[in-house]
Amino acid sequence: MSTDRTRPAGRRDQSGPRSTPSGPRSVPPQRSRGLQPHRPQRPHQWFAERLLAVLSGQRPVHWMLGHTIGEAYDQLAELAPSTPLRATHGSRPVLRHCRGAQPATGVVEAFASIAAGDRVRAMAFRLEQGADQRWRCAAVELGGERLTAGAPGPR
Known about the structure:
The protein has helices spanning 43-55, 72-79; strands spanning 94-104, 107-116, 119-129, 135-142, 145-146. The chain has a five-stranded antiparallel β-sheet, with helices on one face. The mean pLDDT is 80. Helices cover 14% and strands 27% of the residues. It is an alpha+beta fold. The chain has two helices and five strands. The N and C termini lie far apart (70 Å).
């Protein structure tokens, strides 16, 4: 067992803590983004990621089955086979920005911009909070065209 208390047990090298030539640091190091406390995602950010996964073909439509109400699931089921947010020229689509507004209690209207290569698309959606306090997607729009069941989506 080692008697040197500055070195972890089992460490055999003689090097100790490294110091800078100017001596101890007088300015504390800045915190990196990875060390900041985790802030939970807001509902609209969470839904934007899920909608992107479905509309880009990365996930099946039924992945959203318990997270939609009204016509929203029918809209997604109609649109998903054409994968309107699919990768273009080998670049995977990513969520650039997502913002939400709460026009009434239990309602969030959100918009997001999706980038894939040099192409940027807009997505808007509405979330409603149920009596069980869970958020569910109630409507989806892409690029200014409303996605309705039975109507062809943008291609």
